[in-house]
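Researcher: For the record, we're logging two predictions in this thread. I'll number them. Prediction 1 follows.
Model: Prediction 1, sequence and structure:
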Amino acid sequence: MAELDTYAEAPQVADSLAQLRNIGWIFFPLNDQNGELTELVGAYEHPGSDVTDMLRLRSIKECLAQRIVDYPGHGGGVTWKHEDDLFSCVNELLCLPPPDATSRLVLVPAPRLWTPDRTRSPLPLH
């Protein structure tokens, strides 16, 4: 992950991530093959819902926030997204309405896993 531009940003970064952690977000570090931190990923699964909010932090200035819905049997996908710096992404996430008040229109569908068609009979072996 890119270094902070100034040490003055460090407390702001900690405060921004703490705001999310305090409401139930969990964070996972992603490391490269040398063990260097390349990205920090955070997620919040809304209780009693099929909606997850997600944050991907590559640097202070390169951040992605998304709301993702899972439609069982249909894959689901991204229903909201915001790309900007960390502070903007955290602010936008904190301003999102609850999942039941937001659009469930999928902007970017989740990739579909191919599964065999079980309604067809198998080919006979000769």
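Researcher: Logged. Prediction 2.
Model: Prediction 2, sequence and structure:
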Amino acid sequence: MGNNLFREKPILKTFGTCLLFIALIISAPSNVLADFNDGLMAFHKGDYVTAFREFRSLAEEGHTKAQIQLGIMYEMGLGVKLNYTAASQWYQKAAIHGHKDAQKRLIEMRKKGLATTLKHQFQRIGRVIQLNHSHNMTLGSCILEALV
């Protein structure tokens, strides 16, 4: 009899579908918040592997606070290899969406000369190679000097 009601009243079926959709939308942010909080708790406990896993999946979906946390982890080498380029990339993603803390961190990294792109690193390598060509430096030592 319950199925007959939906066949006779298509508006009820549409209404029921809308309610289900709304319930799913409302529950999604709480799951995201729970995942972020799990990552934050793991981060503060020093469990950087768990924190990285939680933050990475959220950050890839556009969660700005998770992007900042990944930036911090890369900038400080917490649970990951120290990587200023990756840090600045995650800060940049959050900064584009207007997150003030990400913008401040990115500015600070740029002031210190730490926020560089791969393109800038190669340009710097090229300049160092040109400057040190007369000193008979090997290509490897030029690259190391440019990246440090």
